[in-house]
Amino acid sequence: MGNRDFRIEATRLTPREAVEHYRSLVGQHLISVAGLWPTRRDYTGLRSSWAKDLLAGVTVGVVALPLALGFGVASGVGAAAGLVTAIVAGVVAAVFGGSHLQVSGPTGAMTVVLLPVIAKHGVATVPLLAILAGLLVIAMALTAVGRAVEFIPVSVVEGFTIGIGVIIGLQQLPLILGTERGEAESTLVSSWLTLGATDWTRAWQPLVVAAGVIALHLVGHRFFRHLPLSLIAIVVATVAVELAGADVDRIGALPTGLPSPVFPEISAALVQDLAAPALAVAALAALESLLSARVADGMRTDITPTQPDRELMGQGLANVASGLFGGLPATGAIARTAVNVRSGARTRLASVSHAVVLLLVMLLLAPLVSRIPMAALGGVLLVTAGRMINLRLVRTLTHVTRADRNTFWLTLGATVLLDLVAAVLLGIGMAALMSLRHMASYSVVARQNLPTNTREGDVDFSPGHEHLRPRVAIFRVDGALFYGDARRFVDEVTAVDEATQAVILRCHRMRILDASGADAIKAVARQLRARDIVFVVQGMTESQLRTCRLMRAFDEDCHVRELSEAVTRVERDLASRV
To answer: Which of 269, 362, 546, 575 is at a distance of 20 to 30 A from 80, taking alpha carbons?
Structure first.
C-alpha cells in the first residue's frame, strides 16, 4: 500500500483542443462581463432590513466624517477634497461594487502613496491621477484579476497593514505640532525634517489638543466603546479650543455643496509622468479594497460573498467619479466597513446612506466644520494608526514559522522605508522564496536497498544474481524535482562509489518535475554514462516523460514502469558485460 501510485495525471490536450478550450474560457469571461453591473438581487431583503441599514449608514457617516477630513488634510490636498471623495466614491462604489457591506472613501494607505506624488507633480494632478488609476482598476476587473488576492499570504497582509499604521502615525507630526511638513519623499526623512523645523514655543498648544483627543479615545474605549468616539473627541476639542482662544490651525473654509464635475487638464507628457504613480495607486486601490471586502465577508457569513471582479469594477468607477469631482483616489476602508457590519448593515443602502449623511454635513454644517482644529484631526488619525498596529499579532507572526517571520518583517520594513506596492511585491516574493525552500526541504532523494515492497509485491534480485547487490545503487525521488533542489539531486546520485555498476532512479513518488529537474536527470545520466554505469529510470508519469523527452534527458529505452522491470534490465545489462 505504501508504494501505490496516487499521483493524478493532468489531462493533455491536442493543439486543436487547447485552442477550443481557451476560446471557450474567453467566451465565458466576456459573457460574465454582464455580471459586473448592478442587479435587483443586490437589494434582496431590503424590505425587512432598511431600518437597520439606514441606522448603520448614519453610524458609519458619523465615524467617517473626521476620517474623511483628516485623510484629506494628511494627503496634502485638503479637508474638502477628502469629504468630496467620501461622498462621491462612497455612493458609486456602494452601487457598482461587488460587496454588499463595503464602505469606500479616502484611506490612510492612499495618503501614503499620494504625498510623494504631490511633492513631485503638485496638488492639481491628483484628480487626473484618480481617473487614470480608476481606468486601470476597471481594466483589472475586465481581465479577472480580482481573484488574485486569495494568493496573498497573511504575513504580507499584516506586515503591510502595520507598516501603513506606522506611516500614518508619522504623517500626523505636522498636524499635532502646528509645523510645515518637511519636504522629502521618504516619510521618515520628512518626519525628521518636521521635528527639526518645529517651533516648540507654539507647538505645545496643538500637542495638548491632540493629547486630549487621544485621552478621550482611551477613556471612551474603556467605558463607552459603542459611542462615536472620534466625533465626540472632535466636538469636545473644537469647543475647548474656541473657549480657550488657543492659537492652533483650523480646517478652514469648506464648500457648501458638491462641485460640478470637470475633466482635469490632460496632456501626453503629464499622462506619461503619472503612469507609474497611477499604476501604484491602482494596485493599492485593488489590494486594499479586496482585502477589506474579505474581512467583511468573514464577519458576516450569512451575506452573499463579495464578487471580486465586480468589486474592482465598482472601485474603478468610484475613482473615476472622484477625480471628475476634484477628489482623491479612493479604496474600500477596512475600519469603516467593520463599523458598517457591526452596526447591522445587510444591503448596500447602508453604504449609500453614509455618503448621504456626509453630504448633509457639507450642505448644512460646513461653517461649523471649518472651525475644527487640525491637531484634533491629527489626534484622531494617531488613534486610527495605533489600532492598526496589533502588537499581539506581531508577536504571533514572529514565532509561528521562520517563513512567516521573514515575510512579515520584510513587508513591514519595505512599507515604511520604500513604498506600498514595492512592499507587497517584496513580501509576496519572500513568501514564494520561503515556500520554494520549504518544498525543496521536503523533496527527498532516498537511498534504497533490495528487497523492497512495491505495488506488485516484494522485489529482489533473482537467484543467481545476488552478487550484484553491492554493485547496484537504488535512489527514490519523493515529492518534487525542480530548480530548487536540482543541484543537490545531481550531487547525491553521482556520489556513488567506484564499485557501483548500475543506478536505478525510482520516480514513482515524484509529483513535480520541471525543466531544471529534467536537466538534472540529464546531467546524472551523462556523468554515469561517462563512468560506464548502467542507468535505468522507473515509474514516471506520461507528463514527466514528456518533459524529459523534450529536454533529451535520457534515451526512451532507459525508462520502465515497474521496479521489477528495472531490476531485470540491470541484471541483463550487467550479465552481458561478463
So the answer is: 269
Per-residue pLDDT of 99-128, as tens digits, reads 999 999 998 778 777 878 888 888 899 999
Q: Report the distance separating Cα 281 and Cα 289, nearest Å.
A: 12
* Interacting residues of 72 by C-beta distance below 8 A, sequence separation 6+: 78, 79, 80, 81, 82, 83, 85, 106, 328
SS (H, E, C) 245-281: CCCCCECCCCCCCCCCCCCCCCCHHHHHHHHHHHHHH
- DSSP 3-state of 106: coil
Among 92, 530, 58, 96, residue whose Cα is nearest residue 318: 92
Q: Per this entry, what is the length of the chain? A: 578
Owner of C-alpha cell 477634497: 81
Assign residue 45 a region (left: φ > 0; alpha: ψ between -120 and 50; beta: otherwise). left
Tell me, yes or no, if the pTM score tops 0.85.
no
CATH tag for 444-575 (out of 3.30.750.24, 3.40.50.10580, 3.30.70.20, 1.10.10.10): 3.30.750.24
Q: What is the pLDDT of residue 10?
A: 54
Q: Cα–Cα–Cα angle for 506, 508, 513, nearest 5°?
A: 90
Which among 127, 123, 115, 121 is positioned nearest to 183, based on CA atoms? 115
DSSP label of 153:
-
- Residue ranges of domains in the chain: 48-251+275-388, 444-575
Distance of CA 562 to the CA centre of its chain: 45
| Separation between Cα atoms, residue 523 and residue 443, nearest integer Å | 19
Q: Which residues pair with 513 in a beta bridge?
A: 481
Pairwise CA distance, residues 182 & 15, whole Å: 60
Q: How many alpha carbons fall within 13 Å on the CB side of residue 159? A: 33
Q: What is the pLDDT of residues 374-417, one digit of tens each?
A: 888 888 878 877 877 888 888 888 888 888 888 889 988 888 88
Tell how strand 331-332 and strand 104-105 pair up: antiparallel
Q: Which three cell numbers stand for residue 570?
A: 540491470
Complete edge-to-edge strand list for the sheet that includes strand 559-560: 444-448, 472-481, 502-513, 534-538, 559-560
Chain-centroid distance, C-alpha 234: 33
